[in-house]
Structure formats: structure tokens, C-alpha cells
Queue: 3 jobs
Job 1
Amino acid sequence: MLLQPTSTGPLAGQVAVVTGAGRGIGAAIAGKLASLGAAAVLCGRTRSGLESTAGAITKDGGKATAVVCDVTSLESVETAARSIEASFGRVDILVNNAGISGWNGPLHQLPPESWDEIFNTNLRGVYYAVRAFVPLMIRGGSGHVINISSLAGKNPLPNGAAYGASKWGLNGLSYSLAEELRSKNIRVAVICPGSTNTELSPHEGKDPARMLQPEDVAHAVAMLVTQSPQSFVSEILIRPTLKP
């Protein structure tokens, strides 16, 4: 038996998959989409974090399900997709948020295994998720794919060249994917936040109170998935009002 979302709101009846949803930006996005009526499916590698986020969402009256998934493994992502399809029969929103910052230092000193870890998570993982979930959107006749990138994908990032390159690559992937899926009534957008206050991305010497907050990114996601059918916002750049 398929699970039927019963919430009210502009996203009522829709199913939203969010990767890296155990904490930080992913948790904020999942909570925001659930508050708008979607059934939020939280994906990530650590069950305890996912269940904590899901518990907070349900306590606030939203609907959330935790699914353990490692985006660097195609088998893991495909298993998650089959489980979600069996439970809900559809996916309307895919937010590719899972990512790591990795190495902080000159590129010529970067260990090859660190390069692989950064790209396998930040870029290959998005490809795996698109491969697994977009066919469900095509079958349903509509959908949103939102990739969480970074301003490091628009500007130079000394001592973070691999991370920056992975985000430049994610931006390029997003632009091309958007053109591939427009005719399928699936909108693809990329969000590029600046310095954001999360435990995964500390910024030495910056004032956390002036940095972007996870809720700022979640707000941008909400704008994208509730825009009018005739409009297509393909990219959002977010900067803090005051330099931190």
C-alpha cells in the first residue's frame, strides 16, 4: 500500500527527497518543505541524525521519513529510490544537498583520495540521485530538481580548489540538465549560497551571526518549488547582508 501525504499547504500531496538531511542546510530544507505540506523523505548516511530531524518535523505537525542512503554509492541510491517508490509511488521534488568541503590547503598538496572523496560526494552523488529519481518525475509528468552549490562555484577559492571545482562542475551539470528536462515539465535550479553558519563548514574569523543561516537556503528552496507554472528560476545566488 502506498503512503499518501495528508498534510495541507501548497505542496500537499507531493513527495520531497532531500539528501544530506540529517543536519544543517539539509535539515532546514526538509523542515521547510514539510511545513508547506510535502512528505519529506530524509536521506543521509547516519540514521540517528535523520531520525532526529524527522522527529522534529513530525513534532511540528509535518510528515517525514528517514531513509539511510550514501550518495557516493549508486547501489545505495538506487536502493533508496526503489524503497521510496514502493512507499509513495512518486517523487515531486529532489534536493541534492549532500556535500563536503574537504581539504583546506594548496591543490598541489591535496591527497588524491581527498580529491576523489570531494568529487564523489559533491558531483558524482548528484548524478547518481538524478539517475535514480528523475525517471519517477518523468513518469509523473512534472518535478523540481534543486542542486545546492556554493558561491565557490562562481568565484575563485584559494586553498579550496577541489571543492570549488566540484561546485563549478555542479553548476555546469545543473544548467545542462535544466535544458534536458524542460520539455518534460521538470524544472532544474541551482542555489549558490555564500558563507553559511553550519557545523560542517566553519569559517575562521567570521561572525556566525552575520553569516547566512540554513533557514535562508531553505527559504530559497521554498520559493523555487512554489513559483508559478509559467516561470522558471534557474539560479539563485545568496549572500549575507553584512559581510561576516
Job 2
Amino acid sequence: MRSASVSHTVFAVTMIAVGILGLIKGDFAPLWEPIPKSVPALAYLCAFISLACGIGLLGQRTAPAATRVLLAYLLLYLLLLRVPGIFLSPTVDFWWSACQIAVMVAGTWVLYVWLADEWDRRRLGFVTGESGLRIARILFGMALIPFGLAHFIYLKHTAELVPGWLPWHQFWAYFTGCAFIAAGVSVLIGFYARLAAAISALEIGLFLLLVWLPIVAAGSKDAFQWSETVVSWALMAGAWVVADSYRGTPWLVAKKR
């Protein structure tokens, strides 16, 4: 699949924006935090890889190499800087940030399957074929479940974020948490997986549109709110790519894949 989809383009532009943000700040973009501050050069490395790979994703000749590099980078980031933290310091911050990176890995992996060239298919067939696509979807499904659980752990805070013009704030906090969990399970077992992936991407996009963008548009200078806006945009892009990977699959297929 050589032709770029809308989700492919949005993902590429997102990585470019994350890279530019990191270079402007001279620090880690929100997507990569929390991170040890003892290696300042790592912030610039993260920014440069994001920027270079994002640009590479937009070119037909450079896209295979860009996805290969970005996937290797994100996998290493997940395995070396996120997964150990889940066991060494099992706090919400660590597993939440691990799930964020897992969504980006999943989106990049789908793009790698789409854009792999002959060299990749010959030497890395396991990660560029159906098995690679299956792993990407499993990562995505696993990441959605903790997103949903966080809504229950931080129920009061989640309810406070519901726009004021919507009634029943606590109901929406419960509902969106259950939706993430149900979508994650559905993707993992292949039960209405296309519908579940699309709904989860839509839900992340609605959080961005209805919660974070209005807050920052109102002139907020709160670092956390700006950080969540950037992260929500990146997660929406990653989730959109994964949802797009089900193209050609009927919406209401209830069989294991």
C-alpha cells in the first residue's frame, strides 16, 4: 500500500510537530515524559528522530526507511524506558506513559506494514506481514484498557473535565472509561474490532476537541493542560492509523482475528 491515507499524513505531520516542539523547547516534548533529566542530549535526539522520520514519512522513496527507523526507536523507547518503570515504580504515571508510547508504536507498526519495501519484506517478513499487523493491534488493544481504568481511578478529576454544557458529568466519566475498556478487549479478541478501533480513535479525538483545545484556546498557561493537548493529538493520530488498518473489513464482523 504505497498511496498515503489521510491517517498516514496526519501521523507524519504529528511527528514533525512533536519534533519541532522538542527542538524549540530544548527539552522533551510531552509525549516522551516522564524521562530522566540526567541525559539532556536525549531530548534533542528524540526531537530530531521525530522530525526526520515525520518528514521521511511524507516521501514515497523515504517512507519505508522512515517507518523502519521510527518503529525501532519507539520499540526501544518502550522496552528500555517504559516497561521497566511499570515494574520498578508501578505508579499511574509510568503505566499511563507506557500506554501512550504503545499506541504510537502500534500506529508506526501499521505504517511499516503498509509501506515496507522489498528489502523489508525479504528480511523482516515477520514484522511486515499479517503477524506484524496483529502485534500492532494487540499493543493498541492492551493500551486502551489502562486508559479506561484511569477514568475510574481519577473519577472526580475526569468528571471535572467534562464540558460544562454537558449534563451528568460523572456519567460521562464512567461511560468513556467503559468505552475504552470495551474497545480494548474487542480489539484484542477481534470482536467487532474495526468498530472498536474507530470508536476509540473518535473518543480520543473528542477529548482533544471538546476538552483540551477549548482550554488552551481560552489562553491557559498551565503546562499540564498544554501537555495533555499535545499528547491527545498524538494519540489520536496513532489510533487513527490503527483504525485505518481495518479498511476492507466489515464493520460488524464478530470473529476472532
Job 3
Amino acid sequence: MNLRPYQHQLITEIRGRYQLGDRSVLAVLPTGGGKTVCFSYIAEQAAIKGNRVCVMVHRAELLDQASKSMPMHHGLIAANRSMDLSHAVQVASVQTLARRLARFPRDFFQLLIVDEAHHTTAGTWKQVIEHFSGARLLGVTATPIRTDGRGLGENYQSMVVGPTAKWLTDNGFLADARVLAPPGIDTKGLRKRMGDFDMKQAEGLLQEGQVMGDCLTHYKQHLSGQTAIAFCCSVAHAEAVAGLFQANGIAAASIDGKMDSAQRRQLLGSLGRGEIKVLTSCSLIGEGVDVPSVGGCILLRPTQSVALHLQMIGRCLRPSPGKGKAVVLDHVGNTLRLGHHLEEREWSLDGKKKRDSERVLSVKVCPQCFAAMAGQVSVCEQCGYEFRPERRELEVVPGQLQELTAEAAVKARKRQQAMARTLPELEAIERQRGYKPGWARRIMAARGGNGTRR
């Protein structure tokens, strides 16, 4: 297999961690960077040395992709298939393998490889990993983070990180992309379920508002004639969006998990050949779907998950001959909420801390063309709009400047709060400091008031 230099470096670092005594290693490489190539090479080399290897995936599309990437003959462990365990390398559906664990001695595999390893903490994965507890473990992912905040350090002792998405883009390994964030829905009132937005409520807002029409208008303006994937809130939402494009003469289709694998492969093939211009999906098209010719993504699913955000955009970032800049149409504010896909991120095996999720990201949107870009940019690279700093009136007070230390700042904030005796005064502090609604009433209640003192 021909490895790119950065892939070779990543593999060398993985080997180094094992040589230092780690049994479980997590490898991070952005979507489109070639994770499958890396773990296929590692599987081949391990098999040559006489080891039995199992590559585990959680979806049929990933099973097919991993199987196609393997340079050697291998077995498949999947539903409705007979097993041939004579091959040193097996590509397995984790659900099927979990059901058949009784057929495998605990020392059968010497290396377990987990594709899309941010799922490792789920129960089925844990069951399989514990059964083969003597095997080395290699996880690969583009996004080592979970929506529920649990850290992957539960399963992995160390992490090796490859080049960033920005480096891969600057060096031609990923397609460059324009990110446009036209006004969409206001997510402030959306309920949350299991760490993310309530998709049923979001679907209602999106179908009632102007976003449905806007996604068609902006597709025609920025992606006309190109292929795109639209990410939606539900199967019904995906079908409605596909119907909208069809009614306006644009070849479109919806894809979902109820379809058999042959039908899903056919739809993805039609998208790759350009026979379908827009393919809509709820959650099926994400991890592992590889259609390099796709020219853009239409984000109609709001999320608070960094992993899902980056996975969705990653579907249009694979380079392809003749492909220009990809276009991301973010109608739901994911980029403003979770950051630009080229932003450098600090990954950790520790769980997500609350203050991490509340970090303010420096992304702004051009009011003229809706291009999203880094907060420090002064001129829009798309239309040339010049961002002008806000003018603020300054009150001049005579006196001397004094250094404000952290301790002094804390005391000043406490003093300001203590001097606020009424609810309106506390509510003013609440707004000024950006506290969540209800803070002022809780302070009044803690002081012995009923939260309504005026």
C-alpha cells in the first residue's frame, strides 16, 4: 500500500505507543485524511507477523468500505453470512460479533481495530472488547469526543493525533470549502434530549419557517448543477426536502436506514455519478460514506455535537478530479455554535467539561454574502466586505489607571452583586454577564426573598 508521508508518521507513532507498553491506542485523523488506509495497512502488517486481527464497524456501509480497503484476503463476520475464520484478518459487524462471542476463544484475536472509535464506550463494543481482553486495541476516529461528554480514556490509554484539517486542506489532501451561514432558525428555545437538540421540535421549526425555501434558493445560487447531501432532522423531514427539490425540477432522493443495503448503495452510486443532484438523509449519511465528487453539504439539522458537525461537513471535503471549492450551506447555525471545520481543536481522552462546551468560538458571518469565517478576519474573502469595529462612546473619568488583578476582579464582581438589592438590579447584572435566565431570581431567593422583590 502506498502511504502518504503523514500517514506513515501516524502509523510510526502508533507503533511507538505499543512499544512503550500501552495496550490500547486511539488514533485521530480528520475525515478524508485516510484513516481506513492506515488501519488496513496496520492489519496487513500484523497478519504478516502471524497475528489474528479483527476490524470492527457498526454499519453496513462501513463494513463494505473496510472490506474493499483490505489489501489481503479476509473473512467477514456479518448477519446472514457464514464465517470463514481461516483468514488472519476478519472484518466484523460489532453487533454480529457480539451475538457470536460464544464461538470465539478469548485469545482468538491479538489485535482489535475499532473504526469510528468515538462509539467505543457503547455497551456492545464494551462487551466485545472485554471478551478479547488480552488483545491490543486500536481505535481510529476523526472526532474523539462524544455528545454525552464521556471521555474515551475509559477505553484508551494514549492518543496519537495526525495533521489538522487545515493542514490537509492547505496541502491539497482535502478540498477547500466555502461555508455560508444564511439566517436560519433560532435554536435558543429548542429542548435538549440526551445532550443534543430535540429533533422532533427542530423539524417543526424548520418546516414551518423560511428555511425550506431558503435551502432551495441557496442551492440554486451556490451549487446549481452540482451534487449535494442535505442533512435533516428526521426521515419525514428528509423526504419533504427531497420532494421540494423534485418539485422544482432538481433530481433528488431521500435515503434512510429502512432501505436494504443494495438500495442504499444504488442511491449513493447515483449521487456519485451525478444522476441524483441532492440526496437527503436524517442520520444515515455520515461516518464512512465516501462519495468524493459531492460538491456541497446542506445543513438542515441543528446539533450541539462537535463530532456530528464535523462528520456532516466532512462528506463534501474529499478531493476529486475537476472538483472546485466545496460549498457548505449552514442554515441552522452549527458553524457559529460549534466553530469552523478548519478551526484547530485540542482533543483529549478526558471527558468534556462544562466550560469546554460553553467556550465562545471566534466565527463571524458576513452580512452581505453570509460567508462564515474566523473572527479575526477584517475583509470577507468571498465578497470583499470590510468589517468595521464597533464604535463605542467612552466616558472619561479623571483618575489614575490601576492594574486589575484576577483577585481584584473577583472582589469587584462580588461587591457589585452585593450592592444590587432589588430584582431589577440583579437582572441587569444577569444580562451584563450573560448569565442564564433565572439567575437573578435564584439570588433573591437565596437571600430570603421570594424572587419578586422590586
